[in-house]
Fold each of these.
Amino acid sequence: MLKPATRAVAALVACFLGPAAAGQLTYSWPSNVGPLNPHLYAPNQMFAQASVYEPLVKVRGDGTVEPWLAESWSLSEDGRTYDFALRPGVTFSDGAPFDAAAVKANFDAILANRPRHAWLDLARQIEGTEILGPLAFRLVLKAPHDPTLLELALPRPFRFLSPRAMGADGTTAAGIKAPVGTGPWRLVDTQPGVSDTFARNPLYWGTKPAFEQLVVKVIPDPNTRVVALQTGQIDLVYGAAGQIPSEAFLRLRDMAPAFAAAVSPPLATRVLAMNSARFPTDERAVRRAINHAVDKDTLVRTVLDGLEPRADFLFAPSVPYADLGLRPYGFDRAAAARLLDAAGWLPGRDGVRMKDGRRLAVEVDFVGTNAQQRAIAEVLQADLARVGIEVRLIGEEESSILARQKDGRFGLIFGETWGPPYDPASFVSSMRAPSHADYQAQAGLPEKPSLDATIAAALAATDGTERRRLYAELLTTLHEAAIYLPISHAVAIEVHRPSITGVGFGPTINEIPFVAMRPAAR
Amino acid sequence: MLRFAAVRLALIPPMLLGVSILVFVMLRLGQGDPALDYLRLSQIPPTDAALADARVLLGLDRPLVVQYLDWLRRALQGDFGLSYVTRRPVLPELLGFLPATLELAGTALAITLAVSLPLGAWAAGHRGRWQDRLVRGIAVLGVSLPNFWIAFLLVALFSVTLGWLPPMGRGTGRGTLTHLIMPALAICLMSLSVNARLLRASMLEVGGARHVVYARLRGLSEGAVRRRHVFRNALVPVVTATGMHVGELLGGALVVETIFAWPGVGRYAVSAIYNRDYPVIQCFTLVMTAVFVLCNLAVDIAYAWLDPRLRLGGEEAA
C-alpha cells in the first residue's frame, strides 16, 4: 500500500504522463479491435462492433426487447413474418441514409455467407427479406422462431454497415471498404499492437457520447492493465472478471476514493456438465450426490475471492423463464452419503466407494492453463473425496478440452452459460447440437429425445403461457436429473478513475455503455 | 574475408528451408487443432459443420505435403499467407512489428556492452578486492533473476511508487527513452552479467600471457598494456558470447513485451503460439532465424577482424 504523500506524487506525475486530455476516455483491450466487419467474427472484437454498429432492436436487462433502429414491428399470425418500421432520420456516419434498402443489402450480405453463421438458429431460419417501403422491411422465416428478436439484437452478425462501404458486389464475407455504421462511435485510427481510436459520430441519431474520443489501448497482460489504471494510462477497466486478477480488483476497490469499483449482477452461470452417458455419472444417484457434496460457499469465498455469488441452478432466477421455485441441492454430505449408500455404493478399504468391483471414480476435465478451473477442480477433488468419490484431474490445453466436450470424452467438464441475451433461448437451443458439452452430457438420459422436442417446441411457441410451461418442464427435468453442477454466477467487473463518472453495467457483457460515461466535474 | 562472408551467406537459404520444414512438421505434430482455436476466438460453437468450414477456410483440409509445398511456393514469392486470427497477410504484419522489437533488443544490447565491458575490466583490475566481489555478486544476481520478475519490480518501483517512468507502451519523440529504458533493462541484465564475468575471466587469463609480460618488460605503461594488449585480446570470447546474447535478448523481448504492452513481434508471436496461428509462427520462426544468423555472421566478421590469425589463416588457405 502506498503512503499518501507518495500517492499524491504518483497522481501528479500520472496527470503529467497520462492521456487525461479533456474529452478523451481511455480504455484497454487485450488485442486490437480488428477491421470491424460487422458480419464477421475473429479478429473483430464484439464490444467494438457493438459500439460502431447498431441492431434493429436491443435487449434490456430484464430480457425484454426495446426498439432501436426499428421503431416498431409486428409479427404475423403464423409467427413467420416480421414487419419492421425503421427509425426515420438515421444516417450512416458516411452520410448514407439508413433505410429498408440498406437493411436488405446487409441481410443479403449476411445470408450470402450463411454457412459462417450456421451456429445461430436465426441465420438458418430466414427464408427471405423484402423491402415494403422506404422505411418498411419484412423478414420471413421458414418456421416460427421465438428468440428471433433476441438474436437480431446480438453484436453480430445482424447489424448494419453502410452499403457504400461493402465489398465488391455488395458482399462483406471477403472484407469491407471501411467500418461505417450508424452507431455512436466511428473507428478513426488503428495502430497495430498499440491502440485503436474512436471518435464521436457527429451524425449519431441518439444521445451522443459525452467524450469526443475513445482510445482503446492494447494491453494483453492483466497485471499490466492494473498498473496502467493505477498510473493513469487508462481511465477504465471493464469486462469479464479475467480483465484483471481478482485480488487486484479487491485491492483497487479498497483504495477508494482513488478508484471506484463495482461488480455487475449475475451474467452467466459457471457449471460443470456431468456425462450421463459415461460411468459412473450415468447414475442419477451419483450426480445428485456430487451436487450435495460440494461446499460451494467455501469454494466461492476462497477460489473466487467472494466476487461471484453461489449458483444453485443452471440459470439464475433472474433469467427469463428460469424463476421456477425449485429446491436446490444444498451442501449436505450426509445426504450425499445416503444417496450413494442406497444406490449400493459402499465405502471400500481406502475410503473410495465400490460397487460390483468397480471404484466410484470420476474424471474432471479442465483447461490446464486456466488457474481458476484448476483451483475449482482441486476443491472438487477434496470435497468429493470426503463422501467417497475419487476424482481424477485431467488438465489439457484449451482446444483439446473443446474437442473432448464435442466428442463426449469427459466425466465432469467446465462450461458456462452464454449470458444475456443468449440465455435461455439460444443456450437451450444449442443443447440439441451434438458438438456441445450439454448435448453429450445429456445424451445418456432416457428422456433426451423428449427434452430436445421440448426445446424445439419452446423455441417455436408463439403463445407466452405455453412457452413458459415448456421452459419449466425442460429446466425442471434437467434439475431433477442433476445433469449440471452449478458453481457460481459469472459477473462483470469495472474499476474507473475518479476522473470519469456514469459508469454502469449494460444488459450484456459485450456492449460497454461508453455513451453514458462522462468526465467528472472538477 | 569476402569469401568467408559469401560462403556463410550462401548457407543461409538451405538452413532456412530446413528450419521451415522442421517448424511446419513440429507444429502439426501437436495434439491441438487450429480450426478449433479459430472457432474459440470467434466465439462460434464448434459444431462439426463449423469445424469443417473453418478447416476449409484455413486450408487445413488438404494433405500435409500439399499444404507445405503450397506454403513454400508462396513463401518464395514473399507471400507467407494470411494469419488465422487477423486474416491479414502475415509478412507485412510481422515486419510492421519487427522494428519495435529490434529497437528494444538493440537498446538492450547497447546497454549490455556499455555496462558489462567497463564493469568486467574494473573487476579484473581489482581482482580479489571488494570491487571484484561486488561485480561478481551483481553478476550472480543478474543471471539468476528471471527477466519478467525484474520487469514487474521495475514497474512497481519506477511507475507505481515513484511515478517516474511510464509503465507500458512505446513512446515517440522525447518519450522514446522513458518508455524504452525499463523493458530494455529487464531483458539485458542476464547478458550483461554473463558478459561482465566473461570479460573479467578472460582479462585475467590474458593478463598472465607471455606477450603481456613482454609488453610490461618493454616498459610500456600499465594503462597501455591493459588497453592494447590485455583488453583487446580478452574481447575475443566476449564477442563470441555477444552473438549468443542477440538470441537471448530477442527471446527476452518475447516475454517482456507482453508485460510492457510493447508493440513488438514477440507479443505477436506469443499470441500466435497460444492461438495456434500456424502461418504466423512459421513466418516468425523464419524471420527470427534469419535475424539471428545475420547477427552471428556480423559477430564472426568482427571476430575475424579482432583476431588476425583467423583472418590471415583464412586468406592463406584461399
Amino acid sequence: MSARSQAHSAGRGGDGGTRDVVQTHSGHRGLQMEEPLIFEMGSPGRTGVDLPPVTTTTGKLGGLQRRGEIGLPALSEPQVVRHYVRLSQKNYAIDSGLYPLGSCTMKHNPRLNEKIARLPGFSDVHPLQPQSTVQGALELIDTVAHWLKTLTGLPAIAMSPAAGAHGELCGMMTIRSAHEARGNARKRILVPDSAHGTNPATAVLCGYAVDPVPSLPNGRIDLAALKAKLDDDVAGIMLTNPNTCGLFENEIIEVAEAVHAVGAYFYCDGANFNAIVGKVRPGDLGIDIMHLNLHKTFSTPHGGGGPGSGPVVMTAELAPYAPLPYVVAGPDGFRLIETPADQEAAGDGGHAYGRMKSFHGQMGMFVRALAYMMSHGADGLRQVAEDAVLNANYVLARLEDVMTPAYPGPCMHEVLFDDTFLKDTGVTTLDFAKAMIDEGFHPMTVYFPLIVHGAMLTEPTESESKESMDVFIDTLRALAADAKAGNAARFAGAPYLAPRRRLDETRAARNPRLRWTPEAPAEAAE
Amino acid sequence: MRYLPHTAQDRRAMLQTIGVNSVDDLFVDVPRSAVLAKPVDLPDHAGELAVERTLSKMAARNVAAGTVPFFVGGGAYRHHVPAAVDHLIQRSEFLTAYTPYQPEISQGTLQVLFEFQTQVALLTGMEVANASMYDGATACAEAVLMANRLTRRRRAVLSGGLHPQYRAVVETQSRFLDGEIVAAAPDATGEEDLLALIDDETACVVVQNPTFFGHLHDLRKLAEVCHANGALLVVAVTETVSLGAVTSPGAMGADIVVGEGQSLGNALNFGGPYLGLFATREKFVRQMPGRLCGETVDADGRRGFVLTLSTREQHIRREKATSNICTNSGLCSLAFTIHLSLLGEDGFRQLAALNHARACEAAARLAQIPGVSVLNNSFFNEFTVRLPRAAAGVVDTLAERGVLAGIPVSRLLPAAGLDDLMLVAATETTTEEDVAAFGDALAEVLR
C-alpha cells in the first residue's frame, strides 16, 4: 500500500519521485543493487575455476597460437555468483508475478520439467553417438511427435525447427517444395494485416511476395477480400488462429475451402494454440500445416528470449516434403533419417527439401514439453484451454466498463483493448503500461496488433488464480480511473519504482554502443 | 490438478461474472463440428512421481557420455560446466522472463546480453556481436544472406572443411532465395585451395576454423583475395573453446564470424538447444540479423540497456526485415556468459590449452596402432584418423564394448568415399584412462 501511495505522490510531485527522498551513499536502494558490468569488476590473478596444470608441450596449432590479451575479466566464484544474482533481481518474471504479455503465453513453468531435462540420460548425450546408444532419446522424440500429432489432428511432423519463426520458415519451405514438385512454385503468400511480423518476414525468406489481407471491423479476416485475392499465383495463406486480436476466426472452414479451391495451402501460425489445445484439432478445420511453440503452449521456459522450439505438424500430402532429419520406428528400434542418402535407403517416398539446423532439434525442450503434456494428460490439456479462455473472458468482463475492448466478447485466451478509454486524458498506452510496472505488474503486449490503435493485448493464461486476477483487475480499474481523473503526470513519469526509469531508446539507436570497451575508445566514438 | 489453480467454485463464480452458463459458451466462434466432445486419445493426467518414473526409464535407455570413455565431437562438445552456471540460469528471474520488451524491469536480461555481446566480440576478434541465433548452422546461413545483401551478389563459395550440416542449412536457405552455392569437395586432408574459386561475382567465402576435419588454417591470404574481389570472408567456429588457443578470425581478416557457443555453459542435450554466435564489423551492423542490446541512460541519467536498432527486425520492418528471427537462444547465452565469466582470461586460456593437450595425447596414442594414421598436421581438440576399414562398423563395435569412439565421417558425408575416416575429439573431461581404454579397444578391434 505504501508503494502505491508513493507512486501517486511522486506523480503529483513531478519527475523526481519519492525514491529520491532518501539518498543513499552506496547507490544501492535496499534490495535494489546497482551493479557494474562484469568487465568493470575483474582483477588479474583471480579465478572462478581450478583447472589442472597442462603438462604436454607438443603443440599442434600450426603456428596459429593466439597472441595478446583477449580482454576477459578475472573474478572468483563468489563474485560471479553475486553479480548474476544481483542482475537477476532486476528482472520481472512469471515466478514473481502475473505476466500478461499477449500472444506470448507466459504460463507457469513446472520445475519437474527442469529436473527431468537434466537427467544425464537426456542432457549428457551427444547427437552423433551411435544410434544404438540413444534409443531412449529417439523414443522421446517419437513420443512427443505422437502427442503433438494427436492434439492437432495432423498426421506428420517436422521436429527440428528451433522456434516459432523457424517453424514458419519450415512450413513455408515445405509448401513451396510441394508446389515446385508440381512444376510451379507460385508467387504470393497471403498474410492478414493483423499478423505477427515474423509471418511476412518468413514468406519473403522463401522467395514469396507478401500480399496483405485486410481485417473486418469485427477483428476477423475479410473473407470476401481474401477470395478476391485468390488465384493460381497464390501459394498459400499464413493465418494465426486464434488470431492476434484474441479471436477465433469463425469463418476458418470457409477460408480453408477457398484457399484449397485454388490449389493453395493453409498455413496456421500456432502461437495461440493454448486457447484450443485438447479442445479443437486444427486438422479438423482444414489447416494443412502449422507450427507449435513449445515455449508457449507447452510451457518450456521463455528464458529471457529463448531457447524456443517450433515443431511443424502437417498433412500426409505435405509430409514427403518435410525437412531432415526425422525419426522412424522399426522392428529393430528407432532410427534417424539424417541425410538424403538415408532417406533414399529408407525408401519411404520422402524427398526432403533440405535441413533447417544442425542435429535433431531442441531435445532439451522436447523433454520439458513431454513432462508437461504427461502431467496434464488429455483431460488436463483440455482444461488448460478452457481455463485460459475463462481467465481472459473474466478480465474482459470485469474491465469492459472502464477500459475499451477492441472487439465485443467472447474472446479466446487473450483480450485486446484499444486506447479509446484514454482519449483526452493525455495518457498513452505506453504511459499506462509503464504505470502498471509501478504497480508490480508486467505490462501486457502493447501496440500490437497494428490494426488496433494503442493496442493492449492481455493474456493472463490458465496459471493465474481468481485471486491474483482480481488484484490485477482492481489495479487496472484504479489506473483507468486515475487517467480519467486527469492525473496524467503520474503516468508520464512512470515507472518511478522500477530498477530503472524510462530509458532513452532514441539515444541508443542514434549512437549505438553495443559492447563494452575500455575507457577512451568509447569516448572517441561519441 | 497441480498446475491449475481454479476450484469448481471459482469457475462457477467467474462464469457468472462473465454472464454465461458454461465454458463452451465462450467457444461459440468455433465451428460446432470442430469442438471435440471428449478428450483426445492420450493418457490422462499424471503426478510428478509417475511422470518422473516413465521419463527416467527413457533416459536410462541412453548411454550418457559421462559414463564411458567418450570422444565424440563434430560440432558439439562435452565440457565441464561449473555448478554455479546451472544454479544461476535456474534463477526464476532469468528462467521465467521473456524478451526484454519492458527494459525498466528487464535490466538483468539486458545487461547480461550486453556482456554476452562484448564477450563474443572479444573472443572472435570482431567489433560487434548480436544477442544470439538458434545455433551455429543457422547463424552460418544468415551470414550468407547478409553477405548477399552487403555485396549485392548472390554466390557463396563454401569450403570443403565446413561442417556438412552447416553446408546443408546454407544450401537449403539459399535455394529458396535463388542464391548460388559453389561448394568445394570435402577436404579431409586440409589441403584445399579456394582462391581459384573467388571472382568478382563472389558474395562471400565460408570457411570453418578449425575445419570439420580438425585442420587449422591461416586465413590471412584468403581474406586478402576475398577483399580484392569485393567479397566477404565468413568464418565459422564450431568449437568456441578453440578461440582461447587459436588466432581469432577477426585478427585474420574475417568480415563475419559465426559460431556454435554450446561448448561454454551448455550441455550436449542430444543436439539442442544450442547457441548461435554472430559477430561482424561495426560498419555492417545495420545489415545484421537478430536482436541487439545497446547502452543508454534512463530518465534520471543512470546507465541502462535496451534492445536497439530494431528497424532491422521483423516486428518493425516486417517483409523488409534482415531476418525473420524472433525468439533466439536467451538462456543458452546466459549460461555461456556466466561460464566465461567464471573462467576469466587465464581460465579460458588454460581450458583451451588443456583441450589441445588432451587431443594431442589421444592422437599420439591412436597413431601407434598399426593401420591407423592421423591425417592432421595441425588441430585443436579434434582430428581425423584413417582406419584400415570402414569407420562406421568400428565405431559400432567400440560402442558395444563401452567406448564412444568418435564419428564415422560417412554418417554425415555418405558416398563421399571417406568411409575409412573417423573424427576424434578430446576435451578437458577426457582422462588418461579414457585415452588408454580407447587406444586399447581400437587396437583390439582392428587386430
